[in-house]
């Protein structure tokens, strides 16, 4: 019955060490070999997926940047793109500067940050990503110039704050804008074009592949997974998710350090 498995990454596909366990990698690879579409459903941009290219070499498609781009990894091009308008992107940069937040721009294939912020990611509760940012990010000290030079390519802007209170102030400052916001990590405020979420991306991918959305299974753990969990045919929630997220679940599986995805595959794909 189910033809597509959409996987969140952080807290879901990746364990606490930001790795894909061999057992989970083998299970999703085997599922793909049976003709099931295994796709990413992630807030990460394309640049931030490079560490996993070997384990995910069979994966054809992904909903990246929280729906900002539905991407064809085999052909290295987007299927759908939803950019943030230049005016709004510039306003987000002003808000980040006002709260001394860490600004992170996701383009179609670029991940853009400042050198100073990469050196001080721990100040924004993002130390676990520091080594990755250091390797993959394009350095930029003038975000407004970057935005003006890359119109129609900015698909997501993340503002990582020094405290939850700082994030809330920026949310109140920005909530009038024509954007979709998500709270992520500890102090992150994620911004995407209005109506663009992991859910809209999964719908677009299913339409592109001529798969009914009722034939999809989405797996997630965090607030930025809420819409896709509500939209997919089956909502599978990781054991490490909060009680609020678990309320959305058709099935609560094991946590991300105990191969929770494997149980989802066994329940909804191997036992049909």
Describe the 3D structure.
The mean pLDDT is 96. Helix content is 32%, strand content 22%. The protein contains 10 helices and 14 strands. An 8-stranded mixed β-sheet has the order 5-4-3-2-1-12-13-14, with helices on both faces. Strands 8-7-6-9-11-10 form a 6-stranded mixed β-sheet. The chain has helices at residues 22-33, 86-98, 115-119, 130-136, 143-149, 164-174, 198-209, 226-231, 243-246, 260-270; strands spanning 4-7, 37-41, 61-64, 69-72, 77-81, 102-106, 111-113, 138-139, 156-160, 179-184, 188-193, 216-220, 234-237, 251-252. It is α/β, with parallel strands linked by helices. The chain has 2 domains: 4-82 and 197-270, Rossmann fold (3-Layer(aba) Sandwich), CATH 3.40.50; 86-193, Hypothetical Protein, Haloacid Dehalogenase-like Hydrolase, Chain: A, domain 2, CATH 3.30.1240. The N and C termini lie close together (7 Å). It is globular.
């Amino acid at each position: 019955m189910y033809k597509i498995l959409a996987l969140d990454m952080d807290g879901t596909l990746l364990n606490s060490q930001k790795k894909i366990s061999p057992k989970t990698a083998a299970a999703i690879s085997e599922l793909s070999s049976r003709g099931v579409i295994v796709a990413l459903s992630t807030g990460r941009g394309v640049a931030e997926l490079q560490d996993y290219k070997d384990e995910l070499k069979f994966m054809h498609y992904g909903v990246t940047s929280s729906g900002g781009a539905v991407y064809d990894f085999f052909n290295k091009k987007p299927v759908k793109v939803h950019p943030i308008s230049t005016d709004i992107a510039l306003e987000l940069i002003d808000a980040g500067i006002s709260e001394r937040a860490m600004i992170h721009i996701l383009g179609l294939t670029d991940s853009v940050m400042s050198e100073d912020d990469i050196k001080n990611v721990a100040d924004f509760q993002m130390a676990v990503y520091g080594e990755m940012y250091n390797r993959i990010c394009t350095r930029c000290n003038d975000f407004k110039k970057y935005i003006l030079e890359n119109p129609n390519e900015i698909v997501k802007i993340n503002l990582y704050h020094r405290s939850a209170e700082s994030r809330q102030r920026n949310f109140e400052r920005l909530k009038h804008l024509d954007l979709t916001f998500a709270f992520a990590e500890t102090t992150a405020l994620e911004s995407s074009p209005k109506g663009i979420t992991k859910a809209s991306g999964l719908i677009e991918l299913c339409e592109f592949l001529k798969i009914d959305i009722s034939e999809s299974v989405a797996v997630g753990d965090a607030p930025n997974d809420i819409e896709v969990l509500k939209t997919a045919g089956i909502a599978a929630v990781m054991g490490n998710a909060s009680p609020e997220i678990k309320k959305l679940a058709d099935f609560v599986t094991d946590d991300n350090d105990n191969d929770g995805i494997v149980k989802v595959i066994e329940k909804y794909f191997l036992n049909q």
